[in-house]
UniProtKB/TrEMBL annotation:
Function: Catalyzes the dehydration of methylthioribulose-1-phosphate (MTRu-1-P) into 2,3-diketo-5-methylthiopentyl-1-phosphate (DK-MTP-1-P).
InterPro entries given in the database record: Aldolase_II/adducin_N, Aldolase_II/adducin_N_sf, MethylthioRu-1-P_deHdtase_MtnB
Keyword Amino-acid biosynthesis: yes
Name of the molecule in the record: Methylthioribulose-1-phosphate dehydratase
């Protein structure tokens, strides 16, 4: 389906849902200093051609304006005439959509995901085991363990995007950038939000456990 065939109503619904999620995350201080980015796919998924709405670069995400989002194609290029620029990290969203066929990708910067990604960064993953909220990822076995990938935070975004296929785990809907933030995704905005909130809870629990244990590397 070409972008022109996606209904105006569908596009409007996507923008409204993104705006509501942006406001919620901003209230939690998950977008410090205009950081972070959100996106939602519009229309059916086709790995050869898909479209999504993404946050515009450099905007104060605590505000709600008509210029908060723009629509881009599978290459992260704007598909409508606009003066807005897509977030600098849109290429990472592109890779996640291409590889998973998901419906939404959310990226936030928090103190806990920065601290945990730095502590485990040299290992290339964060090991999480036996914490209840792992069930948020539909992993139900007792004492379950997951490994959340950690990628280096290169200044060159395409260099990060190239690494995504090598670490993406279909059972773990998230990737950390070291000392930067997390990308979490889901089949729709509701699921992506649930996954992101679960990751943030898990990272905080792990950080506090490390403090209690006096862990060092």
């Amino acid at each position: 389906m070409g972008f022109e065939k996606i209904t105006l109503e569908h596009k409007r619904q996507v923008l409204e849902e993104l705006a509501d999620i942006k406001a919620l995350f901003a209230s939690r201080n998950w977008f410090p200093g205009t950081s972070g980015n959100l996106s939602m796919r519009v229309g059916d998924f086709d790995p050869e051609q898909f479209y999504f709405a993404v946050t515009a670069s450099g905007k104060d995400k605590s505000l709600r304006t008509p210029e908060d989002f723009l629509f881009v194609d599978k290459h992260g290029k704007a598909i409508e005439t606009t003066t807005l620029k897509p977030s600098a990290e849109t290429l990472i969203h592109c890779e996640i959509y291409r590889l998973t066929g998901c419906g939404a990708v959310f990226h936030v910067h928090t103190v806990f995901n920065n601290l945990i990604s730095e502590f485990f960064g040299a290992d290339g993953h964060v090991p999480i085991q036996g914490i209840e909220l792992i069930k948020a990822f539909n992993i139900w076995e007792e004492n379950a363990e997951i490994r959340v990938p950690v990628l280096p935070n290169f200044a060159d975004i395409p260099s990060i995007a190239e690494l995504v296929p090598g670490v993406l785990d279909a059972n773990v809907p998230g990737i950390l950038l070291r000392n930067h933030g997390i990308y979490a995704w889901g089949k729709d905005a509701f699921e992506a939000k649930r996954h992101l909130e679960a990751f943030e809870f898990l990272f905080e629990v792990m950080y506090r456990q490390l403090l209690l244990k006096g862990a060092t590397k």
